[in-house]
Structures are given as structure tokens and as C-alpha cells.
Amino acid sequence: MKKNVLVIGGGGREHALAWKLSQSPRVEKIYVAPGNGGIGRITENIPISATEIEKLAAFASKNAVDVTVVGPDDPLALGIVDAFRARGLRIFGPTKAAAEIEASKTFAKAFMKESGIPTARFEIFSDYEKAKVHLVQCDLPIVVKASGLALGKGVAVCKTTAEAERFLENTMVKKVFGDAGKEVVIEEYLEGQEISIHAFSDGEAYSLFPTAQDHKPIGDGDAGPNTGGMGTIAPVPWVAKESMEKIENSIVKSALKGLAERERTFTGCLYPGLKMTPQGPKVLEFNARFGDPETQSYMRLLKTDLLDVVEACIDGTLSGLKVEWDPGYAACIVLASGGYPGKYKKGKIITGVDEAEKVSGVVVFHAGTKEENGKLHTSGGRVLGVTAYAEDLKEALRRAYEGVSKIHFDGMQYRKDIGAKALG
Ligand code: AMP
Ligand code: GLY
Questions:
Q1: 153: Cβ below 6 Å to ligand 1?
Q2: Closest Cα partner for 331 from 306, 296, 290, 367?
Q3: Atom 6 in ligand 1: which residue has the minimum CA distance?
Q4: At the top level of CATH, which class does the domain 193-423 belong to?
Q5: pTM (whole model) above 0.90
Q6: Could you tell me the distance, in angstroms and rounded to a whole number, from the CA of residue 228 to the centre of ligand 2?
Q7: What would the pLDDT profile of 391-410 be if each residue is shown by its tens digit?
Q8: What is the CATH architecture of 3-93?
């Protein structure tokens, strides 16, 4: 029997998930809540926000949704999986207890320490004065993190103690991140390139994705403030097999085992962000979901029917499924609004998306777009993700940038060096 699927979220990641699901011969109908301008062109947008859990569950019940796939972190942290399961609805993602590995950095760090998972040395503070005293004793640079979810803005890598003190005061005294800053993690700075690891898990069995690399700072050469992610490549060509074995055993396996032992069994997609340090891979953070914009590259490589994988994770049958990936490379270039990650204007007319998709191997995923009177407008900071597939990474990047060259909107900005670090 064909299945109705609900995808929760409205960014580039959700467009990529819906696009991949729409290729499944077993999918009848896809709804995306709230969706976006591009998603609405291939499926149906549902005007319910990703955190309106009761409304989403009611929608799923009423519309005979067979499977729900969650994109963003906040509904997971709010317990959407628990709420759906309690109603007998099938949903892909971790429970609230398991998602704490992302939603609480203090939980994640303590968990890593107890489980022997390699990570930066750290201290946890809920007392501002004590944290301030500790800061002065730390080597520089120093990293200060609000414990809770803060839209990716709750982390400061500080070159001076004064900078760290300012961030600490903003977080703990001025409460710029609200309750997310009640507790902080102060940790050592780790050297090395960042990579993203993803694994599907049904709670017991897991299946690793190829490696990926995001590019978080807004500017070329990693200059400027951090964003949600300005572009990705997958796989990362220089990651050695021995490193992958270490990552699999000491990070992915240990995390899934440790969570299960603590009655926080993890189902869904586990995404550790790593630094490849001279001492080996170390975890910067765990995410309890698909990465954005990693997923835009990943969905161009996934060969297996995504619905099969999602259902195997929900049903605990992942060990019986071979998850296959295409042997080539994928790249994603994010096109952002002028001013992002700071203030930016919305409502700019976007042209050239269809032309971009005529470039061989190119698919454009929408993030912050809105369709009005048949015209596409910008409606967010990250607007589009131009992806390309090719047999080698250089060609994937060339195609993606050729796609980018066809697209225009006022103020459009993007990084010109996605993948350059990996190519060396
Ligand atoms: P997080 O949300 O914990 O991944 O932190 C956001 C970004 O801050 C990461 O992608 C890194 O670029 C940087 N970062 C976080 N922790 C550290 C660390 N201990 N050493 C170096 N950079 C870090
Ligand atoms: N790739 C960044 C994130 O999803 O958190």
C-alpha cells in the first residue's frame, strides 16, 4: 500500500527530504508543514509551524498520514516524537529524552565524558561568578557555549578574556538567549578542520552516511560571523578509512550504546559535528537530526528509497536494509540575502532558478522563498541551496557554481570557495 508522508519544517533540508521522498514509488502524497515556495511546487505546503505539535498531530490523524519525518531541532526538543507515538502515529526522530544530546550541551558534555567519547576538555557552570573566575584561568582562545538551543548563536570562540567575559555576561546575566543560557559550558579550543558525520539509527542498528563538510562562516576563507551553514560537500575526500573507523567506534557506536543504556534510546538521524584534531577526531557537538545544508548534498547521493530507510528506523528493522549511496560527489552552494546572518530585507524577486536546473546535474533546493502571484520572492536569510552531483568533486562544484551564475536577486551573497579547503 502507498503511504502518505508528512515532513516537518520549511527550509532547504526539508525541501531535499521531500524531493527525495517524492521519488519513492511507495509514496502516495507528501505534505510539508510549513514548507516554502519551492516545496509548494512539488508537494503541498501546510500552514502549521514546526513547533505547533498538537496541531501537527491532529493534522496527521485527520489526513491519514502514515509516516512523519522531522527536520528541525526545536520540535524534537519539545517532544514531538513522544506526542506522536502517544497517539499511535509513526514518526522518524528521537524522543525528547534522546534529543537532549543536542538540546542540552551540559547533558551532552557530561554524557561524552562518562561514555569516553573524545571531546574538548570542559567545565559546566550555572553560577555566573564562578564561571567568571574560571575564565581568567583558561588558556586562549577559549570557547563559551550557552547550554540550550539558541539558533546556532549560543557559541562564542573568544580570542581574548575580555571577549569571553562579555559573552558570558550577555548569556548568564543579560540572558540574551533566555533560559538557554542558564547554564554554560566553557571549553578548550580545538584545532583542525570540521566535518559532519550522520548515521541513521533504529535504536540498535545504525548505518553511517558518507562524510560531509559544512562551511559555517559567512565569508570566503572562513571569515566573519557564523551562519546556519553556507555550503556543503559530500563525501570529504581526505578523510582516511582509519579515521572513519575511529569515528564509528569511539563516537557513533559509543553514543548510541550510552543513550540506550540511559533509557534514551536514539532513533532517527544522529549527527555529530567533529573537529579532526592532531590527536584524532573529537566531538564539537551532537545534533539529533539531519544537518542543514548537509542534507541537500546527501539527498543527491542517497540511492536507497528514503521511505524504506525511514520506516526501517521506525520499525527497528534497519539491520535488514542495505542503505546505498551513489559513488560520486555532491556539492551545495547556499545563496543568502544581503546582510545575513545579521539583518536582511525580504521580498526580493528571484530569477533564474529554472535556468540553473537546466545545468547538467543541478537541482535547486529552496530555503527562504515564497511564491506569490506566480513569482518567487526571498523570505529568509538563507534563500536557496544550489546542488550538483558529478563523478568527481571538482566537477560537482563546477556544475553547482554554473547553476549559481544563472540565479539573481537583489543583495544575493554566497561563498565562492565551497569545497576549496577539501580540494587542498
Ligand atoms: P557548536 O554549536 O557547539 O557546534 O559550535 C558552533 C561552532 O563553533 C562550531 O561549528 C565550531 O566552528 C565552533 N566551535 C565550537 N566549539 C569549539 C571548540 N571547542 N573548538 C573550536 N571551535 C569550536
Ligand atoms: N550544518 C549545520 C547544522 O545543521 O547545524
A1: no
A2: 296
A3: 155
A4: alpha beta
A5: yes
A6: 6
A7: 999 999 999 999 999 999 99
A8: 3-Layer(aba) Sandwich (3.40)
